[in-house]
Amino acid sequence: MLIDNHGRPINYLRLAVTDRCNLRCFYCMPEEGIQYLPKPHLLSYEEMIRLVTILAEMGISKVRITGGEPFLRRDIMPFLWKLSEIEGINKINITTNGVLTAPLVPELKKLGVNSVNLSLDSLDRQRFYEITRRDEFPKVWETLETLLAHDIPVKINTVVMSGKNDEDILSMVELARDQNVSVRFIEEMPFNGAGLRPDQIQNFWSYGRIMDLIRSAYPEIYRLQDEPNSTSYNYQIPNFKGSIGVIAAFSRTFCGTCNRLRVTPTGVFKTCLYDDGVFNIRDMMRQKLSDDEIKLLISEALQSRALDGFEAERNRKNLVSESMTTIGG
């Protein structure tokens, strides 16, 4: 079992397989996009399998595949099958924007994917276009319907942005009335390639503000018992099939139970979303370090892990401004 210097067990890896995305969500990257890296700069599938195998031997049991958009990477499905065969990995989850996902759902079901997080920031096609800068809402909706038809647990992730989709909050809540989905609202973060915007600071939709609005429409809503290490505060509305959650990603109130590590598409090893990376696992593998040497470096990194996202941000060399697509969802 991996234990950090604050006594927190670590059993969860978020692995970004690509920095590429087929949407241009303004809260994630600039309108012109980012400079994508050549393929040799990314971790190869073989390197990722080796990394996950090493981490599984150290106690990691859950892997979330992120991007960018993971289904943009060629041959992702054979990689997922190999990942599912690693001893010790008992949960594989995926975060996707849903544009390319629907045709792959039957195979994901067969593979045994534990759950899918689907990014969906508006149920209005025009607002979806304005947020993502792409007219792809019908494909995302098809993915949602297909996932539900195949009984794959779905969490819908909605980033709440003032003046962009705040009028969608209550309609998103209604998705959980007749569908067994978890609708989760996420505080907007500064990982957009430019840093915090003035309007984001002035009209910020905090966890409390989001819940105040939901309670005003559904006063009978009540708090659920959160799962261990949950990043969301979870709620139930009587007679709703699904649940509601709020992720205080900017307020960072969930850091005390954080059980996750992150590896970016280029192999940067992060012990916190808000840090700027500890070392590069890709370079170490290509320098022919042994598995035992890599394990030692990972263990040592966890003994100087930041207490929370605020400490990690203070320790950075540069201000937070990178695009979320380069970090991994």
TrEMBL record:
Specify whether Protease is a keyword of the entry. no
Q: Which PROSITE patterns match?
A: MOAA_NIFB_PQQE, RADICAL_SAM
InterPro entries for this protein:
Aldolase_TIM, Elp3/MiaA/NifB-like_rSAM, MoaA, MoaA-like, MoaA_NifB_PqqE_Fe-S-bd_CS, MoaA_twitch, MoCo_biosynth_MoaA/MoaC, rSAM
Alphabetized GO MF terms: 4 iron, 4 sulfur cluster binding; cyclic pyranopterin monophosphate synthase activity; GTP 3',8'-cyclase activity; GTP binding; metal ion binding
Cofactor(s) it depends on: [4Fe-4S] cluster
- Catalysed reactions, as listed in the record: GTP + AH2 + S-adenosyl-L-methionine = (8S)-3',8-cyclo-7,8-dihydroguanosine 5'-triphosphate + 5'-deoxyadenosine + L-methionine + A + H(+)
What EC number(s) does this enzyme carry? 4.1.99.22
Gene Ontology biological-process annotations: Mo-molybdopterin cofactor biosynthetic process
Q: Which domain of life is it from?
A: Bacteria
Ranges where the Radical SAM core domain occurs: 5-220
Has keyword Nucleus?
Answer: no
Q: Which terms are listed as keywords in the entry? A: 4Fe-4S, GTP-binding, Iron, Iron-sulfur, Lyase, Metal-binding, Molybdenum cofactor biosynthesis, Nucleotide-binding, S-adenosyl-L-methionine
- PANTHER family listed in its UniProt record: MOLYBDENUM COFACTOR BIOSYNTHESIS PROTEIN 1 (PTHR22960:SF0), MOLYBDOPTERIN COFACTOR SYNTHESIS PROTEIN A (PTHR22960)
What protein does this entry describe?
GTP 3',8-cyclase
Q: Which organism is it from?
A: Emticicia agri
Could you tell me the gene encoding this protein?
moaA
